[in-house]
Amino acid sequence: MKKLFIASLMASMLAAPALQAAEYEIDTQGAHAFIQFKISHLGYSWLYGRFNTFKGNFSYDAAKLADSKIQLEIDTKSIDSNHAERDKHLRSPDFLNVDKHSKATFVSTKIVPKAGADFDVVGNFTLNGVTKEIVINATKLGEGSDPWGGYRAGFAGTTSINLEDFAIKNILGPASATVHLDLSVEGIKKS
Amino acid sequence: MTSETKGYDRTSRVLHWSVAAIVIGLFASGFWMVDLSYYSSWYRTAPFWHKSVGVLLFLMMGYRVLWRLLNGTATPLASHSKAVQRVSHLTHLLLYVLIFLIICSGYLISTADGRPIEVFGLFDLPSAGELFAEQADRAGVVHKFAAYGLIALAVIHALAALKHHFFDKDETLKRMLNP
């Protein structure tokens, strides 16, 4: 009986790493992760910007993609559209109201594998104090050992949000109702 | 008024009233332009004029301080108590400090990302770069509240001048208007 217990314990210990997806820390330290956005300017061109400060982690196992999870925490104050006066306006209550809502977060609730390397990440996105479910169209870019003794996995994703869904009044005109988000994240496997 | 009392020379008077007019104009334009809609035809031109006139004010104030240092200013009226003289002097000093504080903070907002300030389309005032973190936001807070403070103090300053003119019936206001 005791032997059987030990055997099963050993078996479960051996099996555990295979069942449990690996944990990754998003490499914001080395800036191999980006949260970019673009929004139409008057309907005539794209305005690009990004969030410079954020952190996050994900769990991922290529064999069990549906069990993967990701969460992100974005410092809204770090918005950067390469124009100090505009960024000041974007941080004001007219847009992100960063004094009141200093963080935007995304927490995945479901991963839906699609064809090839593509999958959907369904999750709750909180921005300006409003939480809404969004879907990120993601794709796996690659994974493997890095030259410095670590192990990395990288993904790209896109999604779109309507400003008014997050209680941000659209004062920029009808062509600018939607913000397109473009994410590129590389995670380093936690040892 | 005693014969030894020195009044304000012409340059000081012209500078005083010009600065007063410009400060009121800049405050009004600033108060109004921050709430302009994105599609207002003034959205880009109002800040352009506000900044240009702000730089002009800086030059005028620089000249004013220099003029005052070289030529001195009016001596206090003998009819004013020592306390009144001291409070007026402090008020004038604070008005100067606030004006320079507002000009500097305004400069720091617009130049926080390295962009210069275009002055009347004549020349570019270069940026000194980002001197501290969150420069545009922090300088913006200083710019706004120092401006409210300046206008409040200027109202007190004007009311005091009117009080001296109509109640005390002394020379205080007159000597800023006439030689």
From TrEMBL, chain A:
<dbReference type="Pfam" id="PF04264">
    <property type="entry name" value="YceI"/>
</dbReference>
<dbReference type="InterPro" id="IPR007372">
    <property type="entry name" value="Lipid/polyisoprenoid-bd_YceI"/>
</dbReference>
<protein>
    <submittedName>
        <fullName>YceI family protein</fullName>
    </submittedName>
</protein>
<feature type="signal peptide">
    <location>
        <begin position="1"/>
        <end position="21"/>
    </location>
</feature>
<feature type="domain" description="Lipid/polyisoprenoid-binding YceI-like">
    <location>
        <begin position="23"/>
        <end position="188"/>
    </location>
</feature>
<keyword id="KW-0732">Signal</keyword>
<dbReference type="InterPro" id="IPR036761">
    <property type="entry name" value="TTHA0802/YceI-like_sf"/>
</dbReference>
TrEMBL record, chain B:
<dbReference type="InterPro" id="IPR052168">
    <property type="entry name" value="Cytochrome_b561_oxidase"/>
</dbReference>
<keyword id="KW-1133">Transmembrane helix</keyword>
<keyword id="KW-0813">Transport</keyword>
<keyword id="KW-1003">Cell membrane</keyword>
<feature type="transmembrane region" description="Helical">
    <location>
        <begin position="145"/>
        <end position="166"/>
    </location>
</feature>
<feature type="transmembrane region" description="Helical">
    <location>
        <begin position="14"/>
        <end position="33"/>
    </location>
</feature>
<dbReference type="InterPro" id="IPR016174">
    <property type="entry name" value="Di-haem_cyt_TM"/>
</dbReference>
<keyword id="KW-0349">Heme</keyword>
<dbReference type="GO" id="GO:0020037">
    <property type="term" value="F:heme binding"/>
</dbReference>
<dbReference type="InterPro" id="IPR011577">
    <property type="entry name" value="Cyt_b561_bac/Ni-Hgenase"/>
</dbReference>
<keyword id="KW-0812">Transmembrane</keyword>
<dbReference type="GO" id="GO:0022904">
    <property type="term" value="P:respiratory electron transport chain"/>
</dbReference>
<feature type="transmembrane region" description="Helical">
    <location>
        <begin position="90"/>
        <end position="109"/>
    </location>
</feature>
<protein>
    <submittedName>
        <fullName>Cytochrome b</fullName>
    </submittedName>
</protein>
<feature type="domain" description="Cytochrome b561 bacterial/Ni-hydrogenase">
    <location>
        <begin position="8"/>
        <end position="178"/>
    </location>
</feature>
<keyword id="KW-0472">Membrane</keyword>
<feature type="transmembrane region" description="Helical">
    <location>
        <begin position="53"/>
        <end position="70"/>
    </location>
</feature>
<keyword id="KW-0408">Iron</keyword>
<dbReference type="GO" id="GO:0009055">
    <property type="term" value="F:electron transfer activity"/>
</dbReference>
<dbReference type="Pfam" id="PF01292">
    <property type="entry name" value="Ni_hydr_CYTB"/>
</dbReference>
<comment type="similarity">
    <text>Belongs to the cytochrome b561 family.</text>
</comment>
<keyword id="KW-0249">Electron transport</keyword>
